[in-house]
Write a structure and sequence with these properties.
Length: 264
């Protein structure tokens, strides 16, 4: 069958190809440490599995639910961000989708028009550029200083900003570098984004997995103005070892969340 140009233009996932290669080498008896897909090395906690089993037995999931997620789940997401990041959202600012990847795809579909530019720091998780391209946008790659763990600065951003720039994507802590932006670094980037009305897409899916005194912080907790300029993307995949459950979410501007709900 003929496939669309849109999908033919999408590159094979380099992550999945590399992880298949690691599996093939392991099958040949070679000792391989696979740093490919981001998976926790512990199972989903029993207390989570138990309530999910109860929900199925109680027929809670038999019928269509709210497109943007059941209110109880959206409230739990709001509560957890209040507790961990000290930020306030209401449940109409939450969109729950089938994993953060689906949420990001939907987000780019609602934010990006053909030709719009999205600034993407390198190195980056491979799906980001494909999502931007599928929305007919243009990823604008920016490389930060290797001595600063490739983190980008306002100068780096200003060097590539044009009147077509609609968003900047910051993945902190980063896949693949692990680098986490400090609160001061986020404040500087956030104020730049507010000044130029550029949306910050903050992929914080690894924000609960920080070690060795690394400061855990969210873009949303830098200032109220920056929170309002930011769409937070997070989910349960990494934090709770639930990659197979496919639950991710976005938090932020109500109009964007409503548009994502319309798209879903
Ligand atoms: C930076 C980043 N964002 C999003 C995702 C997707 O997460 P999910 O399993 O919730 O789709 C991944 C998965 O590897 C990731 O590394």
């Amino acid at each position: 069958m003929k496939l669309s140009k849109r999908i033919n233009d999408v590159a094979e996932s380099a992550t999945l190809a590399a992880s298949q290669k690691a599996r093939d080498l392991k099958a040949q008896g070679i000792d391989v440490v696979s740093l490919t897909v981001g998976e926790s090395d512990f199972p989903t906690p029993k207390y989570i599995a138990d309530v999910a089993i109860d929900a199925i037995k109680n027929h809670d999931a038999d019928h269509y639910t709210a497109t943007n997620g059941i209110p109880e789940l959206r409230q739990a997401i709001v509560d957890s961000h209040k507790k961990l990041d000290k930020v306030d959202y209401d449940i109409n600012q939450v969109f729950v989708g089938a994993g953060a990847k689906h949420v990001l795809y939907t987000l780019f579909q609602v934010l990006v028009d053909p030709g719009d530019e999205v600034i993407l720091p390198v190195p980056y998780w491979v799906s980001f550029s494909e999502h931007i391209t599928m929305a007919e946008g243009k990823p604008v790659f920016v490389k930060g200083d290797p001595d600063n763990l490739y983190k980008i600065t306002v100068d780096d951003l200003e060097a590539v900003r044009t009147d077509k720039t609609v968003a900047v994507l910051i993945n902190s802590p980063s896949n693949p570098t692990g680098a986490a932006y400090t609160k001061e670094e986020k404040l500087a980037i956030g104020n730049w984004a507010v000044e130029h009305n550029i949306v910050i897409i903050a992929d914080e899916i690894y924000s609960r997995l920080v070690y060795n005194q690394t400061e855990a912080n969210s873009f949303a907790s830098t200032s109220d103005e920056i929170r309002d300029q930011t769409i937070i993307v997070n989910g349960v995949s990494k934090t709770y070892a639930m990659t197979g459950w496919r639950i991710g979410y976005a938090l932020g501007n109500k109009d964007v969340i409503t548009a994502m709900t319309k798209h879903a």
